[in-house]
Amino acid sequence: MNKHRFALTLALSALLLGLAGDLLLRWIPWGLNVPLWVALAVAVAVHGTAGTERRVALFPAVCALLSAAGLVWRDAELLRVLDVALLLFFLPMLALRVRGVQLGRAGLSEVGLAVAATGAQTVAGVPRLVFSDIPWRELPARGTMRAGGVAARGLVLASPALVVFAALLMSADAAFAKLIQNLFLFDVPDAATHLIVTIVLGAACAGFLRSLLLSGAMPRVPRPSFVKLPAAETSVALALVNLLFAAFVLVQFRYFFLITNPASLARYARRGFFELVLVVALVLPMLLLLDWLVEKKSKLFRALIGAQVALVLVIAASAMRRMQLYRDAFGLTELRLYTTAFMVFLSVLLLWLVATVLTGNRHRFAAGAIATGMIAVLALHAINPDAFIATTNIARARAGLRVLDARYVAHLSDDAAPVILANRDAFAAQPEALWRFLAKPRTIGWRTWNVSRARAIRELRLYESNASGR
Asked: Angle formed by the axes of helices 334-356 and 299-330, to 10°?
């Protein structure tokens, strides 16, 4: 099959994915529909590259499927944002091999450039596929075939303008809206929605499949010779930063080991946690950048980086201790839990930096960092943050440590439904919060099916059945 006919098959595959996306993805909130569509998209990509050197990268494919599956598992909004973000990151990574990138030997910047290159080619690939790759000229030069091809291309070009202008004009004049509606035997706005979703998804899939199947490796640009830092001066800079961190660690020692008044510790913990998280988050890319810029790395340079990692880990432990005190005094929230999880993730990456970058195996850092991120998100799904928050705050209220913030607990997602329903008496002081949670609208349908929502609906029905039977 030549390139032109191959491009036509590619376009038809993209149209299939666009139609499937319209049938599946328009239903919100997302649930089972997303992993079904992602599985179909990955299957099309795998089938299209089977038996060629352009095989889809296995690790990103598995991670993309796991990210999509997370939308079926949990209902928490922040988890769903993480799932979608990972999905948008891993899908372009399917083309890593085509970009000439081996994940096990690539740096983070190289992976990022490959993802960006695939994204750019996805956007630019649609017009090239339609107007250059598809063999329009191979259609018969005369007769209805050529006229049909011209009409089809004209319809594709005009469809966005037709949809937008028709919708505006129909809104502006009721008589014109009735005329347009009488011309068709279907609901024009609904049909326009179907058309737009199909075109947008089909175009995105067409651009990506073209990038995967018809493009090549991205160019390699060597680092300019002047982009480097001298090892001696860099070591001095690292030593100064280490002294600053060491002074901070000494202060933390005083507060956490020499002060025993819980009230003083609680007041101390109220400030500084998020600043410490930012410090740890900034140190990691700084050390990676310095290691990249310094060509001749001395033992002193590596020792200073190791010392800085150790000091930053102590700062991370200080931040974790602050959060523990803050949680004990004021309860647990989504922001506090997810920020703590992010701190743990950064600490693991710092240890991974020591194990790879400082041992001369920098090329292994990116793959481990990406895998760690995927594992961290899966761990959050397993922990079930909303249920954990509800359990923690209700337990503290029962222990008399703090009055339950019923409104906050009731605003949590259906992941917390089993905990809330099992502790209905904890909402006795604020029953309206419980009723608001019980009355929250919940979608029912196979496309939006989700484990947590399905369980919440089932338990709510059981609760209502028991309540009505009394």
From this structure: 160
